[in-house]
Amino acid sequence: MVIKVFLASSSGSTAIKKKQQDVLGFLEALKVDYAPLDIACNEDNRMWMRENVPVEKKPTNGIPLPPQIFNEESYCGDYETFFDAKEDNAVYAFLGLPPPPGSKEAKEAYLLENGPVENGTIVNGTDDAEDEENLEAEEENIDDDTLKAPVKEEEAQEEVEDEEAKGEDDQPVSEEEEELRQLEQEEEDE
Fold this sequence. Notes:
This protein is an alpha+beta fold. It has helices at 14-29, 43-52, 79-87, 91-95, 104-114, 128-140, 144-170, 175-189, and strands spanning 3-7, 34-38, 68-71, 74-78, 117-118, 121-122. The protein has eight helices and six strands, in the order βαβαββαααββααα. Strand 5 and strand 6 (121-122) form a beta hairpin. It is elongated. The N and C termini lie far apart (85 Å).
């Protein structure tokens, strides 16, 4: 299956150029095979894209703007739907491709098909109440150190700040500095 990305090589819109670059860069990073098809230089590409974008996905003027993404003949979406899929870690599903083994998307798809896994065994047939209980149990079993770590860091920072403040007050001072502090204190009191 080849992903077709319809582009405009000579677009005057920087927004369209950025969207096209975003789509192509992300597909390249995922090592997805795709074919960039230019609608600016090839009238056949332009007509094919316009005819195959579903009516409900076309803008109000009826002319879809690039980039438009297809999996062979099947419409995937435009930049906005691609971006949403990217944010949801669902790009492979958006493209109609199987996710690579070990990817987050593959793990989520496996869980949807097979249910949760406990101790290497697939657990099927749990209802929503059981799922909530399992989730609560997992949350309770979180290592206490992971919960305490941010608190410990905050306490350590407070101690450092306290030490710095004490250090300023506890340093040996000359008699002149001590008299100056006393005078300043008396002025504040008045």
